[in-house]
Amino acid sequence: MRGEGTRQRIKTAKGRSNSSIKWIQRQLNDPYVRKAKAEGYRSRAAYKLIELDERFKFLRGAKRVIDLGIAPGGWTQVVRRVCPHAQVVGIDLLPTDPIDGAIILQMDFMDDAAPALLTEALGGPADIVLSDMAANTVGHPQTDHLRTMALVEAGGLFASEILRPGGTYVAKVLAGGADNDLVAELKRQFTTVKHAKPPASRKDSSEWYVIAQGFKGRPEPAVEDGDE
């Protein structure tokens, strides 16, 4: 068995691009990748959620959880281990192998039908809405940021419709965090809104997470004169 300090190298790089070689080399020497394999998680991303929960303590006691961008399933695995009786409903464009206790929808969250299908499958108000969604990058920073923030805003709108009072919304954002307008809206709807970059998030990655806790609930619709 190789020691922790021994770097592994690809036995053959024939036919591979430089970027492919670098990615494989990084995976081989990533302690989180090795840890995920040893502990049965489907991806190293599981530790991002574990570390966020260690800091903000939002998972324990959750009974209903939505996982937006569930594939390959690492975050839902964490939820099910921390909360064995929790009902989880996830959605992703990519196929995701079944997970005990989870309902998985393979479709685009931005599809108009998705929110209603997720709500029906969950069967009640959510304690937590998790979003590890990120738009496919095109290499143009401003465009990539706008596309990802559109997902964060859509997830936040959905969270405001399905969360129970006191619930939590956790979403991936890019460097710089959520836009000012979005932060202001989240602060209006949640008691606390924080940004964090968990240790499992690679240093060269632009990803951060916004953690909005203490959902204040949906305001009662105003009653106009003559409606009673």
TrEMBL record:
It is found in: Cytoplasm. GO terms for cellular component: cytoplasm. Residues 41-215 form the Ribosomal RNA methyltransferase FtsJ domain. The active site is at residue 172. GO terms for molecular function: rRNA (uridine-2'-O-)-methyltransferase activity. S-adenosyl-L-methionine binds at residues 73, 75, 92, 108, 132. It catalyses: uridine(2552) in 23S rRNA + S-adenosyl-L-methionine = 2'-O-methyluridine(2552) in 23S rRNA + S-adenosyl-L-homocysteine + H(+). Keywords: Cytoplasm, Methyltransferase, rRNA processing, S-adenosyl-L-methionine, Transferase. It holds the Pfam family FtsJ. InterPro entries: RNA_methyltr_RlmE, RNA_MeTrfase_FtsJ_dom, rRNA-MeTfrase_E, SAM-dependent_MTases_sf. The keyword S-adenosyl-L-methionine applies. The keyword Transferase applies. Its EC number is 2.1.1.166. Belongs to the class I-like SAM-binding methyltransferase superfamily. RNA methyltransferase RlmE family. Specifically methylates the uridine in position 2552 of 23S rRNA at the 2'-O position of the ribose in the fully assembled 50S ribosomal subunit. This is Ribosomal RNA large subunit methyltransferase E.
